[in-house]
Amino acid sequence: MIDAAGAVEAHQIDLTYSGGLQALRDVSLRVAQGEFVSIVGPSGCGKSTLLRLVAGLLRSSSGQITVSGRPPADARRVSQTAAYVFQDATLLPWRSVVENVRLPLELRGQARGQRRQLVERGLELIGLTAFADRLPNQLSGGMRMRVSLARALVTSPELLLLDEPFGALDDISRTRLQEELHALWLAHRWTGLLVTHNINEAVFLSQRVLVMSPRPGTIAADIQIDFPERRTRELRSRPEFAAACGAVAATLWRNVA
Predict the structure, then answer these.
(1) pLDDT tens string 90-113
(2) Phi, psi (5° rounding) for residue 81?
(3) Which one-letter DSSP state was computed for residue 219?
(4) All structural domains of the chain
(5) Measuring CA to CA, which residue among 132, 190, 134, 122 is closest to residue 162?
(6) pTM score of the predicted model
């Protein structure tokens, strides 16, 4: 069940870099607790920049962002509300799967016994138990991304920020990981905010798709995706799914032209 309370709220966000380049202009959005929302738009429109603002990794030039009612930096450092998954798996090559997944708990100062239980559960959730002692260079691209997801989810975040996490994968691996991510969202109901160039991915995973305009990026459209919360692979072959993808694509093209 989606909570009406806002997990992420942004009001009239502008971001201009020191060299004068305006990346974002008058961006306002709201993501409810337990909702999964995707952001699509042309390259360079500021999608990843917006995600970094929500994560507290950047600061806007004007406007206000809150994450669970806190400034993003507080949510990240103090309450540890959010977890971030990058396009690259960003695993430490000298650490095994289990050691990479354990890292955020070590940085948090979690007790050793609690760490062991949480890591075991995280590995089990993502289907990595049999690979716990492998190094990243012994894994496929899809497996490395599973490790990255497990590392993010082991902290039990309220908000999961995903920046094109499946972009480098082949179509089969990408589809499987989308389905696994959707199953995890159904089971745990964290809030999801995904940046992607893949319209099919956005429609399959999301309750809403936000379409951004070219730079300086702003939210040009907010499209409701009216499918049941529980989605299966068969949905992708249905006419209504193709129609939803077509509607998002048409809106994107209207705002690019």
Answers:
(1) 899 999 999 999 888 888 776 677
(2) -75, -35
(3) E
(4) 3-81+158-256 (3.40.50.300), 91-156 (no CATH)
(5) 190
(6) 0.90
